[in-house]
Amino acid sequence: MTGEKVFRTEFSVKGREFSRAGDVSCRIKNLLKDIGIDAGTVRRLAIASFEAEMNVIMYARQAVISLAVSPDKVSIVIDDEGPGIPDIALAMKEGFSTATREMRELGFGAGMGLPNIRKNSDVFHLTSEPGRGTRLEITVRLDGSRP
Amino acid sequence: MTPAKRHAISVNLDKCTGCVHCLTACPTQAIRIRDGKARVIDRQCIDCGECIRHCPRDAIESHTTSFSDLQRFAYKVAIPATALYGQFGNSVLPYEILYALRKIGFDHVYDLSAICELYIAAVEEFLTEHAQPRPVIASTCPVVVRLIQRRFPTLSGLIVPFEPPREIGAKILRSTLPAALKLKPEDIGIIHITPCPAKLVSINHPATMKKSYLDGAVSIRDIYPPILDILRKKDDTAIMRHLFPDSSMSGLGIGWSISGGETRSLPKFRTVAVSGVQDTIHVLDQVESGLLRDVDYLECMVCPDGCVGGPLSIENRFLAKSRILHLAKKAGDKSVIDRSEIRTMYRENFLSFQHPVEPQPSAPLDADPAEAIRKAGLREKILQRLPGKNCGFCGAPDCATLADDIVRGLADIRNCPMTWKETP
User: Fold this and answer.
1) What is the DSSP letter of A64?
2) How many helices (H) does chain B have, and how many strands (E)?
3) Stated pTM of the model
4) Mean pLDDT, residues B352-357
């Protein structure tokens, strides 16, 4: 086999499946611990991947979450089919939220999700096609340096 | 009992039949069946006692302190967990139980309810002084502390940095008794009465200090019969009342052995109380994902319903809980401590850990990151070949754990009966 220096795996997440909220980010977290990534970095990625997973559950129809771990970085790509984000700059503002009353009652929708993901990643790349879906790529470097 | 032993539980190989009850019940996957017998992996065991609860043959033994171990002390003090108060009949009051301990041979018996109240008052000071980070996690259940060290190392810093009430009580006694009794400190034995084996581990291998203030822990299971014998005699009622007046018991501390006992005393804060080992793991997972940041104090007890559900208690936990609730209701919110004294103790760090809770993360798949990454991939491939029935026949609790053991070189895929038909 080639490419053994990178560990890749994929998870699928369904929209509205609140009963399974956190399952994928928990599995990602445990994988990272098994690979021996330091606790602080695991925590950042656990928070980022949980927020991203919740965004899929709250807004999208479904998504594929891909994880890639190499000795120098961890990348997570969340590719969803859903309404997309018409104004990314606005969505990135802290406190901005399109959450419904129901979501807020569940404790979500404080408008901190995307800013929190960006805060906990070294590379953050968000693209969207309204009506089709959203793609979020985040990377955390493992050499300890932060840009 | 040898103090060097890392854990307070072990398998009696004569009684163990190698069935899978404990294997699947273990929340940290610390048990394997090898050569037809259950084996505990020391590094992964957190002494929660789930295996004791689930073994149908009573083959998991707990090594708490025995009565004969106590004979080396000239003066013996008992500090019973408040869970003990719920173990006997509805008409049996705490002071009768404390007096029974005196009759059994303890020279002094110390009620913990007041210290429980003292602890939570100090927690209130701490929460007021430190607005961040959140949630602060209780330090009372020793299994939770061990679970956090091993499985949730990033949360180690969230544990409230105070020794639990049993240690604070023992520390107070240690600092006063030798002078008052004119005895050498080593002649005084301070013994906890415990509903779980984990307390003994926290005494022999404390997580946050060099040496515990306690000398041992006798299980409720062992001390129940002699207490019952004395209660049946029903004499000396007047002396008992004089020795242990109800007025010295704290209404706020007496309910500590049930889930929510701590949080009840923090009305000014947002609190959450969790009990049961699986639910505790679930909630700690959520904390690690960044949830519960709007919660000030998180009380976790790994036994179901709290310490009343301890694996070494006798009474079923529902009856025990009902009795404790009744006692707490009768005592109301009665406070027996002086708030200004607590503030002094808090300022003087009398309650504080000697050192922080150190994370003890589990071993990665390999020390070399590239090799760990390769093994993680290999593990997924092996898992796909396994049947996913989680039957336990291979000796591991489930297929994922077998795959993990294989890549770590601890097991062979041929251990799985369903892969026998595959050609290698």
Assistant:
1) E
2) 14, 11
3) 0.93
4) 95
Q: How far lies B413's CA from each of A60, A81, B320, B377, in Å? A: 40, 39, 46, 16
Q: Same structural domain for residues B188 and B335?
A: yes
Burial of B197 from C-beta contacts in 10 A (0-12 / 13-18 / 19+): buried
Where are the strands (E) in B195-288, listed by range?
216-219, 271-275
Q: Which domain holds residue A87?
A: 7-141
Best mutation target, B152, B282, B289, to test chain A (most A CBs within 10 A): B289
Domain count, chain A: 1
**Stretch 65-84 of chain A: residues touching chain B, C-beta under 8 Å:** 69-71
Which among B289, B364, B377 has CB closest to A47? B289
Say if CB B327 and CB B255 are below 8 A apart: yes
Probe site for chain A from B151, B154, B375 (most A CB atoms < 10 A): B154
DSSP 8-state assignment for residue B183: -
Distance, CA of B126 to CA of B221 (rounded, Å): 36
CA distance B176 to B102: 20
Q: Which helix (H) or strand (E) holds B370?
A: helix B369-385
Looking at the predicted complex, does its ipTM rise above 0.90?
no
In terms of DSSP H, where are the helices of B234-364? 237-243, 277-288, 317-331, 339-347
Question: Which domain, by its residues, includes B227?
Answer: 67-347
Whether B73 has a pLDDT exceeding 90, the answer reads yes
**Count of structural domains, chain B:** 3
Q: What is the CA radius of gyration of chain A?
A: 15
Summarised one tens digit per residue, pLDDT across range B244-275 is 776 788 999 999 999 999 999 999 999 999 99
Contact B141, B199 (CB under 8 A): no
pLDDT at A103 over 80: no
Q: What was the pLDDT predicted at B423?
A: 53
- CA angle centred on B207, ends B108 and B4, rounded to 5°: 75
Domain edge (last residue) among B15, B30, B63: B63
B4, pLDDT greater than 50: no
